[in-house]
Amino acid sequence: MAGYIAVYSEYPFLIPMLCMLCVIAAARFSRSSFCSLAVCTAGTVMSYFTFEKIYSDSELCIATAASFAVMAAAAAFIRSSESEYRKLREISERKSISSYMLRAISHDIRNPLTVILGAVSAVIENRSGIDEDTLMELMADVRSEAERLKNMTENVLTVSMIAEETGKLSISAESAEEIVRDSVKALRLSGENVVETVVPAKSLTVMVNAVLIKQVMINIMENSIIHGCATRIILSAEIINNEVLFRICDNGKGISKSFINMLNEGVPVSESKYYRQKDSNLGISMSVCKKIVDMHGGAFSAGNNKDGGAEFSFTVPLKANE
Known about the structure:
extended; 10 strands; alpha+beta; five-stranded mixed sheet; three-stranded mixed sheet; 3 domains; 21% strand; Heat Shock Protein 90; 9 helices
């Protein structure tokens, strides 16, 4: 004859004590020759074992059974703790990205607002004496800074979607060439900055969220220009196995080894800290770019090219049968 004991608790730290009490009770009072113990927490069987009752009144039997119960419960507790730790770590990573962006945005949003308020105040206070050329220059500044605020808002929404994981990525078949072209088109370039694109003659179709991948490309190129002082950028795409590899190289000052290490460790870090020249402008951080690529099932890497400039690359899935 066999008996069965199920120990269930929503609180894993209580399981060892509950198991020991149940096994002692079974060893003393159960009429079964064998008794099985299942340890459950959060709706999952975490551990299971069976013991034989040789002598119901034997203290040694009771102590041995209790020891097995505690070991089984400890194993269950460890497994449960590991699962909870992974969940907490994921939540912590998402929260750290959100906190990082909020701190950065609260500081960086002041600059464009200051320019806009200054330009508007100048027009209001000197509307009768301001010439048309000066007026157009001020309005151009207002438009430029308003576009910066718009981009910052889009970046915040991007980070919010990732940090809160409001849903799965909306992925569709997209032209790699169009993504490259649109990213360069959206980049704010001055006369001294040049972006060259190198894409295969054969059309490449990738399975991505085009908006997010464009954000990654734009952010990398903007940081190369603003923080790395690059004047020339090469954006290329090529097929590697069943993926498309995007590579962005520049002729700037390169990036530090400490940043590369922090990126690999998933540490959020301001772009102005890993380039040698600080600037208040901020896109979505490189750690978030890496997160976007990770969510696509790709790989993100950073380093310096042989000429000393920075080189970023990432992969995304190629559409089947390409």
